[in-house]
Structure formats: structure tokens, C-alpha cells
Design goal:
By secondary structure, this protein is mainly alpha-helical. It contains six helices and two strands. A two-stranded antiparallel sheet has the order 1-2.
């Protein structure tokens, strides 16, 4: 789908940080078979084999889920994702919240980018201490903006006759092609599950 590598790395940066912490904690806290012994500032830390494998398993699940989400968000229009959520029986209130989040997240991102540019012009990121202070101020201002935007959005929706739920149109019928693809995917998943379960036995 020709996604730029920088964009993929940027979207995977936060999950990768979480994955590194998870693998490190699992490797140290779980298991009884020492794999490697590391000395850190006079402390001797043993990396356990069982914990390392368990951490890598959790990491693969996290990165796999995030990768699927990135792929879906890159090739699927937002309205089709919301239609799918409704088709799956997700409560309408959750779908409404997802629609509003998708609508206003880009506004908040623009505000955050403008604030960061203003801070950079004023040398707000010239040192580590000032960078942390500037980032904290920016995060607080974005949270305040989101609360203010939520109140204004609710007022605007109430004025336009919002009664607790949005009017949704009828769901489009699933095409034959989509039905075939879904059937093939389900068969592959069931076959993979059977193979894994039999392999474990």
C-alpha cells in the first residue's frame, strides 16, 4: 500500500516502548532458568529463559494487533469502519463516541502542533529541563482544549436537536466478494487454531 517507512515507525514508536518494558519485566520477574546475568550499577540481574519467551510472545501479540490496526486505518475509509462496528453489534453510543473522536482528534493535533511551534520559536526546547516543562505545559493545554471542545460540541449538538442518540441510516448489504473473503479468513483461522491446539497436545 506504499506507506512511508517513517510514518510506520512513528506509529509504532509508542507500542515499541511499551513492548520493550514488558519484555524487560517479564524476563526479570518470570521463570527460574537463568539465561544471561547482567550487572547494572552494582546490581546483578538475571534474565530468565521462560520470562524472555513469555515477554516475546506478549510483544508479538501487541505488535501484531497494532500492525493490523495501522493497516486497517490506512486502507479502509473511516465511514466503513464505523459501518463495520455497527454491523458487529457494537452499542450505538460507542460508535457515536468513536465518530466524534475521529472528527475532533485532527483539530486537537493541529492545535498541539501550533503550540509546539510557538514553544520552539521561544526556545522552549533548548534544554532537557525546559523541554520537559514545555511538553508538560503543552499536554495540559491540549487536555484543557479537549474539555472545552467537548462542552462546545455538546452545546452545538443539543441546539441541533440531539436527544441522546444520532440518527443512523440503514446498513449497506454485504457484497458477495466480501462474504467470500470473510469465509476464507474464518476457514484459515479455524484451521490454524486446530493445528496449534493439536500441536500443543
Amino acid at each position: 500500500i506504499r506507506l512511508p517507512l517513517k510514518l510506520i515507525l512513528a506509529r509504532l514508536a509508542a507500542p515499541l516502548g511499551i513492548v520493550v518494558v514488558l519484555v524487560a519485566l517479564q524476563s526479570i520477574l518470570v521463570g527460574s532458568t537463568p539465561l544471561v546475568s547482567i550487572s547494572v550499577f552494582g546490581w546483578h540481574v538475571n534474565v530468565m529463559r521462560e520470562g524472555a519467551w513469555r515477554g516475546l510472545l506478549i510483544a508479538s501479540r501487541v505488535l501484531g494487533g497494532v500492525s493490523v490496526m495501522i493497516l486497517m486505518s490506512s486502507i479502509t475509509p473511516a465511514h466503513q469502519i464505523f459501518h463495520t462496528l455497527r454491523w458487529l453489534g457494537i452499542p450505538k453510543g460507542w460508535v457515536e463516541v468513536a465518530i466524534l473522536m475521529y472528527r475532533y482528534i485532527f483539530i486537537l493535533l493541529d492545535r498541539a502542533a501550533e503550540g509546539m511551534v510557538a514553544q520552539r520559536v521561544r526556545l522552549g526546547y533548548s534544554g532537557l529541563r525546559r523541554s520537559l516543562l514545555s511538553f508538560g505545559t503543552l499536554a495540559g493545554s491540549v487536555i484543557a482544549l479537549s474539555i472545552d471542545q467537548a462542552a462546545r460540541t455538546h452545546e452545538a449538538m443539543t441546539v441541533r436537536g440531539y436527544k441522546g442518540h444520532m440518527p443512523f441510516g440503514s446498513l449497506p448489504a454485504m457484497s458477495t466478494k466480501d462474504s467470500c473473503i470473510m469465509g476464507i479468513v474464518l476457514v484459515i483461522l479455524i484451521f490454524s487454531y486446530i493445528v496449534v491446539e493439536w500441536g500443543a497436545i
